[in-house]
Every structure is written in structure tokens, then in C-alpha cells.
Amino acid sequence: MTQETLNEGGASLVFLINLGATLVMFGVILVVQIVHYPLFSRVGAESFRAYEAAHIELMTLVVLPLMTAELITAFLLALQPPHGVPPLAAWIGLALVGVTWLSTAFIQVPLHGRFSAGFDAEAHRALVMTNWLRTVAWSLRALLVLWMTWRSWQAR
Fold first, then answer.
1. 85 CA to centre of own chain
2. Given 37, 89, 90, 143, which residue has the most CB atoms within 10 angstroms?
3. Taking residues 88-103, what's their average pLDDT?
4. Could you tell me if 30 and 135 are in contact, meaning their C-beta atoms sit under 8 angstroms apart?
5. Helix (H) or strand (E) run with residue 25 in it
6. Residue 136: is its pLDDT beyond 90?
7. Is the pLDDT of residue 58 over 50?
8. Which phi-psi region, left, alpha or beta, contains residue 2 (left: φ > 0; alpha: ψ -120 to 50)?
């Protein structure tokens, strides 16, 4: 096995991890945006604090490993795009990951923090509205990584 073959195999694994993490997060964000967040208002005031605490704990278990894998692999792909994929496409993909992380850290997490005292209708409206930024970013990433997959297969 040549070093080039080993590098290509490693790049393929990085690409597959990125593809998988992105597509799973695309599915997660659609469910969160369309189903989960809108239903927050139906939990009930007496149990909302416990519900929100459980939501944060359980969602973190699901999304943190996926988001971390997506971030690391998007960075690696930007440094070394798959065969047949324009470098700009990989950098755009990394920028979209940045959008999801920044939105999560500076918009959604603080809004969730407002729920620690109980349901807040204003925070809920803001959460549903601002989460569209992440939904659009992950939707664009899903389309981009599928396109990158097609380009890479076409180039082989």
C-alpha cells in the first residue's frame, strides 16, 4: 500500500464521518425546529423547569458528539478537500459549521438559559424564530455534502 493510498483512505473516512454527522444533524435540526421547539409551549408551567433540564442534558448527549465530529472533519476537509471537490466548497462547508456553532453558543444556549426559571413565552418565540438560522445552515450543509459526495464519485 502506498502512502497516497493510505492518505486517500484516511480522507475517505474523514469525508464519510463528515457526511454522516451532517446528515444526522440535518435530521435532528428539522425535528427540533418543526416538532420539538414548537411543543415547548404545551409542556405546562408546573413541569417545564424539569422538562427543560432534561431536554438540555439529553440533547447534549445526542448533538455534542455529532457537532464535534462535524466540526473536526469539516476543518480537515477544508485543509484537504476530497478528490474532485473544489476547495472553496469545503471552506464554505466549514463556514456553515461555524454558523451553527456560533448560533448555538450565542443565541440558542442563552435563550435556553432563560428557561431555567420556567417557561418564558418571549424566549420561546425567539428560540423558534432564531433557530431557523441553524436549520437553514444545516440544510445548506446537507445539500453541500451530498453535492461534494457526487463530485467526488464523479471524479473517480
1. 21
2. 90
3. 98
4. yes
5. helix 3-31
6. yes
7. yes
8. beta
Mean pLDDT of 59-72: 98
Q: What amino acid occupies position 39?
A: L
C-alpha 2, offset from chain centre: 35
pTM of the complete model: 0.92
Mapping DSSP to helix (H, G, I), strand (E, B) and coil, where does residue 65 land?
Answer: helix
The whole-angstrom distance between residue 108's C-alpha and the CA centroid of its chain comes to 13
* Residues 109 and 143 sit within 8 Å (Cβ to Cβ): no
Task: Read off the C-alpha cell for 28.
Answer: 435532528
Of 79, 72, 111, 96, the residue nearest 145 (C-alpha): 96
Q: What distances in angstroms separate CA 87 from CA 4, 49, 68, 71, one per listed residue?
A: 19, 45, 21, 16
Q: Say yes or no to pLDDT of 7 above 70.
A: no
Nearest partner of 107 among 34, 28, 37, judged by Cα: 37
Q: Indicate the residue type of 97.
A: V
Q: What percent of the chain has pLDDT over 90?
A: 92
CB-based contacts of 59, cutoff 8 Å, min separation 6: 32
Kindly tell me if the per-residue pLDDT of 16 is higher than 60.
yes
| Residue 81 DSSP class | P
